[in-house]
Amino acid sequence: MTQLIEAKKGNITPEMEYVAQNEEIDVEKLRKYIASGKVVIPKNNTNDTLPTGIGKGLRTKINANIGSSTEMEDIDIELEKVDVLVKYGADAVMDLSTGSKLLEIRKAIREKTNIPLGTVPIYQAGVETRNSGEAIVDMDEDLIFKVITEQAKEGVDFITVHCGITKDSIQSVKDSERIMGIVSRGGALTAAWIMHNEKENPLHKDFDYLLDICKEYDVTLSLGDGLRPGCIHDATDIAQIRELTTLGRLVKRSKEAGVQVMVEGPGHVPITEVKANMQIQKTICDEAPFYVLGPIVTDRAPGYDHITAAIGGSIAGASGADFLCYVTPAEHLCIPSVEHVKQGVIASKIAAEVADIAKQIPSTMRKEKEMAIARDNFDWNKQFELAIDGETAKEYYESAEASEDEMCSMCGDFCAIKMVKDHEKK
After folding, report:
1. pTM above 0.85, yes or no
2. CATH class as words, domain 42-360
């Protein structure tokens, strides 16, 4: 039984109760949101994943991607990244490993943390095909469903599947004026398979079979945006919107089958188009939770894309996005280090906080007020406690010790708050 089916029946599950308490929302209201598909709780029914709500009326959540590649594979480093992303507040983690040890890495991540775990199953299918000595484009179409079933049994909570890539959508890319074509790894792999085999996408053609697997284990579908724009020039074009309309139809089929579903959104978008992209998705996809990568709002800041993504993410979240996929400073350049993961999570958490202020989320507004009071009272420890990255804040404060507790070295005796308080005391 899935959370969606239970909600449709009018039943309140322990997971719903947990999320409602954590989010400070009425549990019946939450149940109705889940029943309508506006909120998901990605939690495989075979494990003890921490119930985390994503969607309407809830805090904006963030996901952190980690994983090995064919060029760099070290399980200890990946697990160190897990420690860091959990410490700094990631709500979910995706293992995007494509190296030969991907099974071992995913198992270790699952054992390391109980936050929701996501994957892109076609990566594993591609690795297995490559390891068998065949070209990835010669992958057996049954293999992808075999892998999805295996991952569901292992306890994976949500999966990205590029069901919206079809023969027609590939043609729309060919007919477009795109500079970068298809930039999604899973999307490109799927498109290459379709063109090489001259067959329709198995995940689209046999979507009902996919739903059967996900329904059995309550795996949440994350419908991947395989045709997302890879640069500002390509944003909000016909290919992107055509895929989104396909995903909108698949959202409806998922809900009817009782399978929880969310939709992934664009990567590179001009700041003036971010809000419109959120509104288009919510309209086409019947307000299914929206999971966005960034969006990145300029292509000219490699090495600082955690900042460009935070700018786009704050606007996206304020405009309706529910789930932000973090972007690290290493995006487009190299596999992220542990420090890159930290910086990516913090930047994304800031974006989520900005979005939740715009949404007037009660728990967020309370903490913002508490921070203001702590600043007014020169309560430094409380400020560090409330800060998204209290360690760094404390380090900066202590690096240039002020002569009094009621000031910092920035303003000293010219502190605006201190001058007024001193006058009031007199």
Report:
1. yes
2. alpha beta
